Structure formats: C-alpha cells, structure tokens
Amino acid sequence: MPRVAIPYLPDYQLRLHAPVASVWTPDLFDHPDAPPSQLAMEVGQRLASAILHTQGVYVYDIRAKLTLFVSAGVERMLGYPSTDFTTDFHYALIHPDDLPIVTEASILANKYVTERLDDPLSGLVFSVDYRMRHRRGHWVRVLRQNIIVARDTNGAVVGLAGILTDITAHKSTNDVRFHMNRPDFAAFVRRQQVESLPEPLSTREQEIMGLLLEGLTSKEIGEKLFISPTTVQKHRQNIRLKVGSHNVHQLLQHLDAATGS
Asked: Would I find S-adenosyl-L-methionine among this entry's keywords (predicted)?
C-alpha cells in the first residue's frame, strides 16, 4: 500500500519529531550504535494484546530513532496503515494549534528523564492529550500515555511505548493538557520556563516568579517571603521588564500539576 500523504498542511516541515528526539544525544547511551531493541518490541506486542480494542500502541526506539512496532488499534483509531505510522508521521498528524505545546511538553518530559539516569523511575507515566487528523479528514482527540519499556546500562531510555486512547467523546474542549506522575515534575517545568527567559532573573525575582506561577497574589507572596506587598510589586515590575513578550504562563497553563503516585 502506498504511503499516505498529508494534504491539509502542504508546507509542513519534515522531521517534526526531531526537536524531541534531539534531547537524547549519543553520549547518553552505553552503545549508541547498538541494533534496535528486541525487548522493547516484544513488550509492545504484549501491551497490544492487553489493551482495549479502541486503543492503539506503538513502540519507539530512542537510541535507534526507529519505530519498532505499531498495533492494529492505531489504524482502527486514525485510519492510516500501521506501516505508515512513524514518529514523524505521528507528529505531522497533530493539529497545528496543538503541536507547539505537545512538542515542548514532550521535550521537557525527555529532559526530565535524561537528568535522572540513575533513578529507576518506577511506574513513570507521561500523559498528554491533543487532536490528530483522521485519514477521512476529521479530528480525533487522543490521550497519549508514554511508559519506559527498556533502558541500557547507563540508565538511558532505549524503548518508549505510547498508548493512544480515543477520548473524543469524553472531552469537548480543545485545550492541550499534559502531566507526569512524579511529584517534582511541575516544579521542574516551572524552573525550565524561568531559565528560558531572555534575560536572567535575580534569585529573589526567581522566587517571586515561581510563586506567581503557582497562582499566589502579591499579598500572599509578601507574607510567604516576609516582605511588603509594595516590594513584591517592584520586583514584579522588574520581572515584566526582563520578561517582555516572553509568555512564561503559556506552557504552564497546560500543565496538570497534581502529583499522582
């Protein structure tokens, strides 16, 4: 069967998944040129036999940058042959309004893991929901849940499984939500956002920015830091001057910060 074209965005750039994949540099792996993980593919096959008929699963080898396995459920959900469902094709099907948040959230999830290669990360699940283009032209709202299925001796993730669930009937809004069931992930995301600002903030400004992102008022921040609301306001003015048009809140508005287990 010929490869399916994506007609609705002819100017889509190639390698949409590249920014996410680039987080995993070769130096993180014990054997960067090792063949694709047979273990990861076998785990994916077992997952496919255990999930619901309305769900789909794929397995991606991060080290080899290769999709190892795609279940028949993906074709039932989206209409595309499983042989076409590479990771780049997956990202090309994401709604253009959702793609920037999905990409940035996925990059942050990968960065979180790369900074914890010595952590077993037992039971880690990264979840994000977004719209994908069905082969017939309509949009399907999917929940993607990523789990680690294989790691190397360095602790680097080799195999990553993604479980896709059609939640179109259960969600009527178009906002993207993402979450990781690790208690420190929300703080990690906030820190990454502050560090990405065009001009560095002082230690006190970083404190205040973090509390603002948690939703505290100037009065509440003053009480927490033992400074006056007027001082908080002055710091906020300095922060606004440094931040400029950089919208720190944009990504965080999509983060579900509930800790989970």
From this structure: no
Cα 106 to Cα 119, 130, 210, 234: the distances in Å are 19, 12, 21, 35
Tell me how far CA of residue 30 lies from CA of 27, 67, 153, 254, in angstroms.
8, 20, 6, 35
Judged by DSSP in three states, 131 sits in strand
Topology of the domain comprising 18-181: Beta-Lactamase (3.30.450)
Q: Give the residue range(s) of CATH 3.30.450.20 domains in the chain.
A: 18-181
- Check if the beta carbon of residue 142 is closer than 8 Å to that of residue 77: yes
Domain made up of 189-252: CATH architecture: Orthogonal Bundle (1.10)
- CB atoms inside a 10 Å sphere around CB 22: 12
Q: Going residue by residue through the chain (261 aa), what tens digit of pLDDT does each one get?
A: 444 455 444 444 456 788 899 999 999 999 999 999 999 999 999 999 888 888 999 999 999 999 999 999 999 999 999 999 999 899 999 999 999 999 999 999 999 999 999 999 999 999 999 999 999 999 999 999 999 999 999 999 999 999 999 999 999 899 999 999 999 998 898 888 777 776 777 889 888 887 887 778 899 999 999 999 999 999 988 887 776 645 555 666 777 765 443
Amino acid residing at 100: P
Q: Could you give the residue range(s) of every CATH 1.10.10.10 domain in the chain?
A: 189-252
